[in-house]
Amino acid sequence: MRHNRTPPLKVVVRQGLDIVRGMAYLHSMGFIHRDLKSDNLLIAAEKVIKIADFGVARIEVQTEGMTPEIGTYRWMAPRVVKFSL
């Protein structure tokens, strides 16, 4: 049975930092995830967050010619949605 309890602030902050550090690492390696959302975040051992689903990820070679409309609209930044309309 799943309990809907709010996790402690310390856990939430640590998990947020896991996401930020993971994305920073991806970007430092030249990757763009393009579909980061809660469905693509996995909780591993010790409640560590792992980023998953790189199906639409791109290697950041250039910004021209990349299609911004890849991803989940509900989770896109407003500037990306505006650009793709």
Automatic annotation (TrEMBL):
It comes from the Eukaryota. It holds the Pfam family Pkinase. GO terms for molecular function: ATP binding; protein kinase activity. Residues 1-85 form the Protein kinase domain. Gene3D superfamilies: Transferase(Phosphotransferase) domain 1 (1.10.510.10). InterPro entries: Kinase-like_dom_sf, Prot_kinase_dom, Ser/Thr_kinase_AS, Ser_Thr_protein_kinase. Signal peptide: none annotated. SUPFAM superfamilies: Protein kinase-like (PK-like) (SSF56112). PANTHER family: OS02G0174200 PROTEIN (PTHR23257:SF979), SERINE-THREONINE PROTEIN KINASE (PTHR23257). This is Protein kinase domain-containing protein.
